[in-house]
């Protein structure tokens, strides 16, 4: 069935809150009704039709063309269906997602997948800081689902991760997996300094190690664990890279002993 297509006619002067444009909120609406929907902005009211050309189609499948990084909260609270974005997106893409799929064929801003509970997000480019992390005042970050980033990610990816899986094919900035509560973070390339800083539980895999490891992680030796092989098979479903590093023996580092200390970081065994 033909998707509902939103094509940008003009670049907005200010950032736009795109959270109303998700399948369950557009169900049953005509293209004319969608054009009249308001989008929150800074100084003046603005309607969807002021920015986008709307082509009628099935709202369970939304396609946004010509997107820019001024479009925030795309896919917020997405519960089902699919949103495909051609271009970059702003902050909080996939915020509090419950299900469905969000595909971003470009780069993503800060707090992508913040508060996510289910579904799948794929970013073809890179993502900025705090991927899957909580907003100010929140105690937990991502709570479920799968996030795949083909490029690099900024600082504090998977901060306070509670549940779910984050896969990054590129590099990660400082403090990846900081304060993790549970869940899994897999980094194909090298991570910045202090991954897993103050993590309590959870699993981090560093395909090419890191710039600096916290001294409060304890070396537990090299292992060839069945659970890691099973994780590898799961990862292959989401990335063509295959993460072959998971098929070889890995060295396990337990920590962070500065807190609860029940987390683990796996690095290639030398």
In a few lines, what is going on in this structure?
With 270 residues, the chain is mostly beta strands. The protein contains 4 helices and 17 strands.
Provide key terms for this protein.
270 residues, two-stranded parallel sheet, 4 helices, mainly beta, 9% helix, elongated, 13-stranded mixed β-sheet
Descriptive report:
There is one protein chain. This protein is mainly β. It is 9% helix and 29% strand. A 13-stranded mixed sheet has the order 5-1-6-8-9-10-11-12-13-14-17-16-15. The chain starts with a strand and ends with a strand. The mean pLDDT is 93.
Blueprint of the fold:
Elements (H helix, E strand, L loop, with lengths): L2 E6 L7 E2 L5 H4 L4 H5 L2 E2 L6 E2 H4 E4 L2 E10 L3 E2 L9 E6 L13 E5 L14 E4 L22 E4 L15 E4 L15 E4 L15 E4 L11 E6 L2 H11 L13 E6 L7 E6 L2
Parallel strand pairs: 1-6, 2-7, 6-8, 8-9, 9-10, 10-11, 11-12, 12-13, 13-14, 14-17
Antiparallel strand pairs: 1-5, 3-4, 15-16, 16-17
**DSSP strand count:** 17
Shape: elongated
Rg from C-alpha positions?
Answer: 19 Å
How are helices and strands ordered from N to C? EEHHEEHEEEEEEEEEEEHEE
Overall pLDDT level: 93
Report the span from N to C terminus.
52 Å
Helical residue percent band: under 10%
The profile of the biggest β sheet is: 13 strands, mixed
Strand residue content: 25-35%
Helix/strand class: mainly beta
Number of helices: 4
Are there runs of 5+ residues with pLDDT below 50, and where?
none
Which strand order spans the largest sheet, edge to edge or round the barrel?
Answer: 5-1-6-8-9-10-11-12-13-14-17-16-15
């Amino acid at each position: 069935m033909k998707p509902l297509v939103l094509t940008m006619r003009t670049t907005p002067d200010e950032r736009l809150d795109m959270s109303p444009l998700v399948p369950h909120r557009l169900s049953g609406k005509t293209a004319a009704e969608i054009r009249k929907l308001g989008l929150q902005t800074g100084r003046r009211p603005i309607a969807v039709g002021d920015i986008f050309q709307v082509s009628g189609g099935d709202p369970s499948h939304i396609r946004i063309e010509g997107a820019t990084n001024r479009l925030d909260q795309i896919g917020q609270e997405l519960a089902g269906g699919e949103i495909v974005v051609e271009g970059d997106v702003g902050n909080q893409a996939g915020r509090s997602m419950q299900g469905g799929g969000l595909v971003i064929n470009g780069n993503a801003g800060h707090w992508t997948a913040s508060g996510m509970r289910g579904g799948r997000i794929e970013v073809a480019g890179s993502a900025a800081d705090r991927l899957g992390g909580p907003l100010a005042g929140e105690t937990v970050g991502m709570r479920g689902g799968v996030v795949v980033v083909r490029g690099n990610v900024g600082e504090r990816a998977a901060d306070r991760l509670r549940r779910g899986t984050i896969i990054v094919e590129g590099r990660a900035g400082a403090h990846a997996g900081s304060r993790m509560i549970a869940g899994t973070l897999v980094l194909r390339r090298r991570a910045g300094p202090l991954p897993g800083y103050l993590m309590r539980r959870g699993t981090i895999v560093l395909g090419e190690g890191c710039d600096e490891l916290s001294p409060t992680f304890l070396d537990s030796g090299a292992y060839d664990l069945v659970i890691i092989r099973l994780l590898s098979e799961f990862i292959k479903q989401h990335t063509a890279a295959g993460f072959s590093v998971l098929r070889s023996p890995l060295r396990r580092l337990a920590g962070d002993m500065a807190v609860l200390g029940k987390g683990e970081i796996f690095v290639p065994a030398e």
